[in-house]
Write a structure and sequence with these properties.
By secondary structure, this protein is an alpha/beta fold. It contains 12 helices and 7 strands. Strand 3 (98-103), helix 4 and strand 4 (125-128) form a beta-alpha-beta unit. Helices cover 49% and strands 9% of the residues. It is globular and about 60 Å long. Strands 4-3-5-6-7 form a 5-stranded parallel sheet, sandwiched between helices. It has a two-stranded antiparallel sheet with strand order 1-2.
């Protein structure tokens, strides 16, 4: 392989529907050597790949467009790879539980981490439609997952949404200026009155999805699983990178105890709103993921995404719920 860019361009642009699982694994292995996650993507739950390959000034004019094409293909390849893997596994393991998944980067982290769906894919046939950066409102409006549910008739529909809606660009819209107080206590003092309105809107989208899912529950027994993330650890002021920590610092919320207390409060309120909605639908189930990871930054790859091990621990919660709800229960 004399030129990795030329080889990868050819492979990434080729018809993935003809690739075997081994060929896909080889492409992924080579691709991982030449990409990293951008330090400051546009939104916290929207990680993007960038190339680690260097291009000389002499090559910039001639090959700059090639690098752009390479990264465009690389950022899209992960989802296409999952779709192809699903078709392969569905044919190879027809007895496995079938699942459709929609969500954000906790379900579809680009290439460099084994997210929740990656962790579950060794045991289940999962059609994953998730996209890093996806907001719940866009998932609802695009409606892609209901088409997939209609076609595939899965046993389970897994949904991960709300993180971008709360802690993405919208975070600064309900974040108030610093108000003095005891560090780590009464974090709601840092939130504007419109915060509950954001939560209510998220709840409306979830409720609409749950109601529409009833048709498929009645038709073929579909069960819906949702979750509330885990308590992310905002970066300290001195640490480079991150998103939510910086949003708070711009509002002069700089004490780490205040930052953590505020994030925990927001996520607990999200948990309360979502779990109360779930209780109204017999076929919708809440996977209790908050508090799964130790309060240890070693379990976090960045400010808001767990490491492979962290995602494995969260995925175990999903797997236990799937096993308990399966008919007959999976041992």
């Amino acid at each position: 392989m004399n030129d990795p860019i030329d080889w990868l361009l050819k492979e990434l642009a080729s018809d993935i529907s003809t690739k075997s699982e081994e060929e896909l694994a080889n492409i992924e292995l080579e691709l991982k050597k030449h990409v990293k996650i951008k330090e400051n993507p546009g939104a916290p739950f929207s990680p993007e790949l960038e190339s680690t390959l260097k291009i000389s000034p002499e090559e910039a004019t001639d090959r700059g467009f090639v690098f752009d094409t390479f990264m465009d293909l690389a950022n899209k390849w992960g989802r296409k790879r999952r779709l192809r893997s699903y078709e392969i596994k569905k044919e190879k393991y027809p007895e496995r539980t079938k699942i459709v998944a929609e969500g954000d980067s906790w379900f579809q982290y680009p290439l460099l981490l084994k997210d929740i769906i990656d962790q579950l894919s060794g045991s289940y046939n999962i059609l994953c439609l998730s996209a890093a950066g996806a907001e719940l409102q866009h998932m609802f409006k695009e409606d892609e997952f209901f088409e997939a549910i209609e076609k595939e008739r899965p046993s389970f529909f897994l949904l991960s949404g709300g993180g971008n809606d709360l802690l993405g660009d919208s975070f600064k819209l309900f974040l108030d200026d610093y108000t003095p107080g005891i560090p780590g206590q009464e974090p709601e003092r840092f939130l504007k009155d419109n915060f509950e309105g954001f939560l209510e809107t998220i709840g409306v989208y979830y409720q609409s999805i749950f109601k529409r899912a009833k048709k498929y529950h009645d038709d073929f027994g579909l069960q819906v699983l949702v979750h509330g993330y885990d308590f992310i650890i905002p970066y300290e002021k001195s640490k480079r990178g991150g998103w939510v920590g910086k949003y708070m610092e711009k509002k002069k919320i700089e004490d780490q105890l205040d930052k953590q207390a505020l994030i925990n409060y927001i996520l607990k309120r999200f948990h309360t709103v979502l779990s109360s909605l779930v209780d109204s639908f017999s076929y919708v189930h809440f996977v209790h993921t908050q508090g799964t990871l130790p309060v240890d930054r070693n379990y976090w790859a960045d400010e808001i995404h767990p490491t492979d091990e962290g995602f494995r621990l969260v995925a175990q919660k999903f797997s236990k719920k799937i096993q308990a709800l399966s008919t007959p229960p999976i041992p």
